[in-house]
Amino acid sequence: MSDMTSNADAPRSPGRPRSVRADEAIVEAALDLLAEGSTIEALSIEAIAARAGVGKATIYRRWAGKEALLLDALRRLKGVMAQPEGHSVRDDLILLVGAIGRNVDPRASKIMPCLVPEVNRSPDHFRLYQNIIAPRRQLMREVLRRGIDEGLIRADIDLEVTMALLTGPMLIQRVLRWNPELDEQTLPEQVVDTVLAGIQAR
Amino acid sequence: MSDMTSNADAPRSPGRPRSVRADEAIVEAALDLLAEGSTIEALSIEAIAARAGVGKATIYRRWAGKEALLLDALRRLKGVMAQPEGHSVRDDLILLVGAIGRNVDPRASKIMPCLVPEVNRSPDHFRLYQNIIAPRRQLMREVLRRGIDEGLIRADIDLEVTMALLTGPMLIQRVLRWNPELDEQTLPEQVVDTVLAGIQAR
């Protein structure tokens, strides 16, 4: 899979090659069907092809199967990953935390939560979900490792627990609107500062 | 609303009064319909009555309407609230964090995530969702206030942010299985200790 289909910011132009326009129509068709309530399980290559106005062969030329197509489609929902600047560990963590659960595509709020029961039932779907979020977790892990290397963060912390502490509050607030008292604008900074205070080197 | 309908541990016995059996059948019918994929919006008192084998009047004698019935039904899904012992702030927080996202009823994993898009669209449903989780948040807030009173926790912390830090990691792990590297057994203690280290009085 190329980066092209993951790049939600790619400009549309009438001069793009026909194959790119077809790819886009296919991905859009899959997302529309999911947003309209189709489960991953019920979603078929036939239905996607029909909605996109292409033949099944066009889809299979580009993707090995439904899972590969959905990986591209669901990644597209989440837009381009935030890129840490690499100067201040605190600033980079605030950037990454601020990007959590921020979906560029409005269909995401309809699609993502309902995938949860499916993801929990099927090992294939769980792998798909992990493939989408693992690169984002890895970015955060690298910033924390940098903090340890720079002597800011204790070397004995549990990185996975620390990432859950940084990610959880923002994710429940953005996806579930967990607590109306919270301010999403200031939350990333407040979360990062409290967690850093708990894991800072003495 | 009495505590009876919220008590998932209540023993069933053939000797219970008919009205209690009817209440239970009604709540069960509502949960079954939701678990089978009905949206809150599409769920009707008619459908619940038909599934429960009672008349609509029986439902309206007990609940003012669909929202009140659903509040009881969804609370039942979550079982009895954990009760802090009131001795150690750390132990009480570990108890409350350990109870987050632990649903006694297997239908919950099918029902709860799919409510999210509905909850975000409708102010009524958002109020319903907040009515379910607010008492649990309040329990945690009281334990944190006790920690402040006892001089363990800094008085200037943001209580709502602290609660999000305590709740978020466990909720994303239990509901989304966010990170396969995390151990759900040790997570509550790890989360509480890291957060307490970040908010402890100097």
From TrEMBL, chains A, B:
Keyword terms, alphabetized: DNA-binding, Transcription, Transcription regulation
Domain annotation HTH tetR-type: ranges: 20-81
Signal peptide (from-to): none
Record InterPro entries: Homeodomain-like_sf (IPR009057), HTH-type_TetR-like_transc_reg (IPR050109), HTH_TetR (IPR001647), Tet_transcr_reg_TetR-rel_C_sf (IPR036271), TetR_C (IPR011075)
Pfam families: TetR_C_11, TetR_N
DNA-binding region: 44-63
Highest taxon in the source lineage: Bacteria
Name by which UniProt lists this protein: TetR/AcrR family transcriptional regulator
